[in-house]
User: What shape does this take?
Amino acid sequence: MERWKNLEKKPAPYFIPTFGPLSGMRILMSATVVAAPFGASLLGEMGAEIIQVELPNIGDPYRKQYPPMTNGDREVSAGWVQNGRNRLSFTLNTNLKYPESREIFLSLIKNADVWLENIVWLEKLGITEELLFEVNPKLIICHVSGFGRPQFGGNPEICDQPSYDVIGQAEGGYTYLNGSPEPCPPTFAASFYNDYLTAMYTALGIAAAYANVLNGGVGQVVDVAQVEAQARVLDDAWTVYANMGIVKQRSGNKVPIFQPGGIYKAKDGRYVSLGAFGPAVYYRFIEAMELDPDHFTYEGAGGTRDAVNSPIGQELRVKTDEWIGSHTAQECYEHFKKFRVPSGIAKSTEDIYNDPHWQSRGNFVKYTDETLGKEVEAFGFVPKLSKTPQRVWRGAPTLGQDTEAILGQLLGYSEAEIAGFRGKGIID
Assistant: This one.
């Protein structure tokens, strides 16, 4: 068949409004749940046109994640409502052994600037990088996986292993460092921390490769591994081990190398976070505590691991605990603010949502969710752009909502041809 060879690419934006700095980029996404899709979401909020390919009658499992939001008999995941917005949903069986699937998929590739996937078993579907670059030499192929693609090195058996957020945290070195010291177990971070971190690197890699194409370069492969994304943000853990032989350990809710630094319990049961690294800030803290700076010197009590663990350092820790424990969290915050000592309160989503500061920065947006058919409210955009701001052009789509429009308008299939796909397991 190979009708894709005669297909003319229709530039983006084709189905969505023109807005943002990435208007003109089209991403074809064969990915589910969190890491890769959220990377696309970040780009979609900046104007990229996102076509998510979902399996017919199954869709992205993220649609079913607990807890659900409802509107009458309509139901969809709260997570999907937040992060599935700004996408087109296209249903397709991506097994290229079916001639119809092959033609449709390659036609989509020809119309894409980026193909983003987290499938792992691509070859079993008949999808190879060589084939895709033949169809579209300027294509950016972004693989998101737990352990990376073997073409970039590594043990192929390990590269082939499945992964989820908690695996990425553990295998990437974060879990070992997070939590209280032994005998307490390591602790993983909540809210799919590794997945969202991986998404940031996904968006960065795609944006960099896209800039290269815009500057006259050719397509290339972007390989994002969950474990490597996690490992990259472990501060100095790699340099202190590789050069000094030191394996960093868990230190709980206190910063081990300076003080004050960490989480402290206030009188009202809430928790205060303090950080005062460097002599200038440290002595402002000492002044705020009405302590003797000649006794509690930075070098002797606060500036290094040895200082923190010294008798004077421990004395300072006790006095800090006692002072904060005798005041409410808000009193602590207001007091330290007067002395320009960096501090904060461990806040819930309720606290943050009802804070006028957060509201005045436009951090919460409203739009109509396509599945629920009602207005919803969700978190807005990070970072903020002054000249080309992000926007939500529509809420998260229903499964297959855009299949016929994409087949007919973007790929040039007739109504009869589209009807001929029905009932074959190709698009439904």
Q: What stands out?
A: The longest helix spans residues 193-214. Residues 15 and 323 are 59 Å apart (CA to CA). The chain has 19 helices and 13 strands. The longest strand covers residues 49-54.
